[in-house]
Amino acid sequence: MPEVDKEGKNFHLEIPQKSELFFLKGSNELGWGMKNRMARIFNPKDGHTLMLAFDHGYFQGPTTGLERIDVNILPLVPYVDTLMLTRGILRSIIPPATTKSIVMRASGGPSILKELSNEEIAVSVEESIRMNVSAMAVQVFIGGEYETKSLLNMSKLVNIGTQYGMPTLAVTAVGKDMVRDAKYFRLATRICAEMGAQFVKTYYVEEGFETVTKSCPVPIVIAGGKKRPELDALKMAYKALQEGASGVDMGRNIFQSESPIAMTRAIKAVVHENKKPEEAYEMYQELKNEYN
Ligand code: R5P
């Protein structure tokens, strides 16, 4: 039998219970489970994330730098917040003991030999929960041949994800012949947010990127895009964060770098330690010698 309550308990009557706003923009009205998943992707201390993207194989196969994910990518895992990957790689290569958050690709279908915008939803929310992931990622092709289909794929994931507290990351994919400017990215990111995505991945542009982040009501992370010199990639990450991005979801500029571990650590210093690109580049060069 539990003993009867004694006198003298302290209910701290003078301390009101705190009711805090959630730290990510546009995310305050999400449910507890979804917020908790978002807080595993974005560090609550600074609101930023360093996601390592290596899901390219779902339409490209073993692209340069991803020939052996066990050899090339696993050594980078300790330095990032989140892994963006496919379920096949998660099951076959990533040790289940990892505590990093996972963003799992949930759309797919065509390979690089076909029309890429013709994707379907390829992974269920139940599978995403079974794999204990923190968000599902879907490609959205604004202006692409199958624009409507890709937006409806995204909407369906948002509908089901909302029921289960699973966020959806909309990835804005740009066709080869399309103009990559702030006007296009304002359109693409805003449509994704309006249609319910909890966060959006897009590309950085030199002119007017701040208008993209300001007009998108939910957090934006930037893709790295094609491999460029390390200092340029560090400058891009720095400017994107200064201009309102909440993080970096970088692939080729990390895993195709001459020293992927050094580059991951340098990008981390920009994202979480507010290091200037030149300082981070110095760090990259020192670390490169250490790892080679
Ligand atoms: C592209 O469709 C993939 O989903 C990648 O996640 C994305 O492009 C980011 O990788 P990168 O930094 O190589 O552009």
- Please state the CA-atom Rg, rounded to the nearest Å: 20 Å
Strands of the largest sheet, in order across it? 1-2-3-6-7-8-9-10
Distance between the termini: 66 Å
- SS elements, strand count: 10
Name the shape in a single word: globular
User: Which sheet architecture does the biggest sheet show?
Assistant: 8 strands, parallel, barrel
Ligand catalogue: ribose-5-phosphate
> How much of the polypeptide forms β-strand, as a percent range?
5-15%
Topology as H/E string? HEHHEHEEEHEHEHEHEHEHHH
Could you characterize what this model shows?
The chain is 39% helix and 14% strand. The strands form two sheets. An eight-stranded parallel β-barrel has the order 1-2-3-6-7-8-9-10, surrounded by five helices. The protein has a two-stranded antiparallel sheet with strand order 4-5. Strand 2, helix 4 and strand 3 form a beta-alpha-beta unit. The longest helix has 18 residues. The structure holds ribose-5-phosphate (R5P). Ribose-5-phosphate binds next to strand 10 and helix 10.
